Structure formats: structure tokens, C-alpha cells
Amino acid sequence: MPNSSTVVIDAGVGIFQVIDDPFSEVVANLWIGWIQDDLTVCAPTLWLNETTSILHKIYMQKLISEERSWEALEALLNLSVEFVAADTEMCRKAYQWASKLNQYQAYDSFYLALAEKLDAEFWTTDQRLVNRARQIGIDWAHWIGEKAQG
User: 141-143 and 40-44 as β-strands: parallel, antiparallel, unpaired?
Assistant: First the structure.
């Protein structure tokens, strides 16, 4: 794995595409590469809920203005991301992934389940998630910080 023309991203990758962060340049370069490689960027529909919640949290913490948070939300909603709705099989797979990774909640596992279904690489801002995945032999989960270091 992976052999597809698709990449799966988590909410953090989307956020760093529209908000300034030390990893924003890394994400922008990854995104440019995906476009040049003609890859489709995918996420479970859960991504929309998570990214909206993250942006609102950043605003409520007064890290960005209300105007900037709305601009970021609009930019986020206009990113070229193809969304895949969870179905019963994806729920089962997410449950299995959460168990394999010894996680109490399965939110992150929906991203892994989708990447597995699409035979795609998975990119995340969650280094701990990638570390856990690597511990069980998953080499198609990537932390964006890897690109910053190499």
C-alpha cells in the first residue's frame, strides 16, 4: 500500500493550509506536490465538523480575529477536498483501527479507515497517531513534520 491517485488528510492539514502556523509552508508545499502529481485530496465528512470546530476554538482563544476566522473558514470550505461519507463498513473499520491503536475514541481511525479503503497515503498533523501506526507496521501514515525535517 498505497497505489492510488488519492491522498487522505486529517483536519489539521486543512487548518494549516488556511491559518499561519510553523507547519503552514510544509502543508502548502505538500498540497502543491499533490496537485502536480494529479492526486485527489480526500477526507471523511467528519473533517468538515472537525475543521469548523478547530477554527472556532482558535477564534474563541483570541488567537485570530472573528473576521480572520470567517475568512479561514471560507478558504477551508473552498479547498479542493473530496469528502467520503461514513458507511457501515467504514464504521467497522474505524472501530477496528481504534482497537489496533489502543485508542478510546475512533475519530482518528476514520481517516485511517478511509486511507485503507482508498489504498492511499494518509497525512496528519498528529505525530502521536503516526507513531502508534508505525508501531503496528503501518508505513503509509505520515506526519507533516517529516517533510519539515527532510
Answer: unpaired
d(CA 127, CA 79): 23
Cα dihedral sign, 95-100-102-107: negative
CA distance 133 to 141: 7
Contact 140, 2 (CB under 8 A): yes
Which among 2, 8, 88, 13 has a CA at the least distance from the CA of 50?
A: 13
- In the numeric block, the cell 465538523 is attached to 49
Q: What percent of the chain has pLDDT over 70?
A: 96
Q: Is the pTM of this model over 0.90?
A: yes
Give me the DSSP letters along 12-64: HHHHHHHS--TTHHHHHHHHHHHHHTTPEEEEETHHHHHHHHHHHHHHHTTSS
- Which domains can be identified in the chain, with CATH numbers? 6-146 (3.40.50.1010)
Predicted pLDDT of residue 111? 97
What cell does 57 get? 476554538
Predicted pLDDT at 4: 75
pLDDT tens for residues 117-127? 999 999 999 99
